[in-house]
Structure to design on (341 residues):
């Protein structure tokens, strides 16, 4: 019998409507337990670690990611897999961060949640939790099926650091534009093993240093010099995710190039990702990205924003020499990007 640890952090899945405030607020795990007697019929030996108080995932912070990584590290040998119940708003950020923090992961860490609270008749919570549990408990030839941090939501299993919440209304809240789902659940759960990361040979290493001296600069036609400079002059800044157009292109006004160059020369790492949901940065393909390469902007390839910003926090937290840090950002560490060029 597989032994699974459910880590309940909060989110809509365990919320109730507060008559006083007229808003949804998170409550304890008992609400979930009472509404999901099926959990006890699954043939899975499960235990629960519940956050007290549970949080709306919009309140997620890097310190909580460190706490989550520590909970998994401390119990790693005792469980076959981990299911994290989490709000959907920042689930992709948490999944991305954990994927970097948990190096050589050989057990499933499946995040799930729901769009409707578990107490609602039409809730999506039950299917999401039950199938996430089943995936976390599945083994093939003695090995776990999914040695990765993933998100299971609305019948699809996504690599966590490739996922994005794209819809606040549909039950299908997530997609993964640049990487296929690792499994799809219908009558059977169909695993796409060719897309799953290989089992690591080395033991788990848990990284708990994240550097939050990072920010994002999302450009648009008409962005002003003062807005760009204010962003790049944040005290202590070490890393910027530059969200650009198309294949990684940006405006070529001299003041814009100068501002970026100044930040890079001062040691700030600037990583280029595209504002498009699908596709990749190709630095140098157009003249409007060639200069970015020349001044030292590095390519985030086809990373999501969620993966890029958490990877920056993770890499900067390693305190590496700048060239090593840049190399690490440009290469795939946990299947979060594909290098095309
Ligand atoms: N605000 C909620 C959260 O992220 C949304 C949800 O879970 N569907 O915690």
């Amino acid at each position: 019998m597989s032994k699974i640890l459910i880590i309940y952090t909060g989110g809509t899945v365990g919320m109730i409507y507060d008559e006083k405030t007229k808003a949804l607020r998170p409550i304890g795990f008992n609400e979930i337990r009472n509404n999901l007697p099926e959990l006890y019929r699954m043939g899975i030996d499960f235990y629960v670690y519940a956050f007290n108080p549970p949080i709306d995932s919009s309140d997620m912070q890097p310190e909580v990611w460190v706490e989550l990584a520590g909970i998994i590290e401390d119990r790693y040998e005792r469980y076959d897999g981990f299911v994290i119940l989490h709000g959907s708003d920042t689930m992709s950020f948490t999944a991305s961060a954990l994927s970097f923090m948990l190096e050589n992961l050989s057990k499933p860490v499946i995040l799930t949640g729901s769009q409707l609270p578990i107490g609602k008749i039409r809730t999506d919570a039950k299917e999401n939790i039950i199938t996430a549990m089943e995936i976390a408990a599945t083994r093939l030839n003695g090995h776990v099926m999914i040695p990765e941090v993933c998100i299971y939501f609305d019948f699809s299993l996504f690599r966590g650091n490739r996922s994005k919440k794209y819809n606040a209304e549909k039950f299908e809240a997530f997609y993964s534009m640049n990487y296929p789902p690792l499994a799809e659940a219908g009558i059977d759960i169909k695993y796409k093993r060719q897309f799953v990361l290989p089992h690591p040979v080395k033991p788990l290493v848990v990284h708990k240093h994240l550097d939050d001296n990072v920010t994002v600069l999302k450009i648009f036609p008409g962005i002003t010099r003062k807005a760009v400079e204010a962003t790049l002059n944040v005290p202590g800044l070490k890393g910027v995710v530059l969200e650009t157009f198309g294949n990684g292109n940006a405006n070529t006004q001299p003041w814009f190039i100068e501002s970026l160059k100044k930040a890079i020369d001062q040691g700030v790492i600037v990583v280029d990702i595209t504002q498009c949901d699908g596709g990749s940065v190709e630095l140098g393909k157009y003249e409007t990205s060639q200069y970015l390469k020349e001044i030292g902007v590095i390519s985030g390839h086809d990373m999501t924003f969620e993966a890029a910003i958490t990877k920056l926090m993770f890499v900067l937290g390693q305190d590496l020499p700048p060239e090593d840090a840049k190399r690490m950002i440009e290469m795939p560490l946990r299947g979060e990007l594909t290098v095309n060029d």
Observations:
- The CA atoms of residues 7 and 49 lie 5 Å apart.
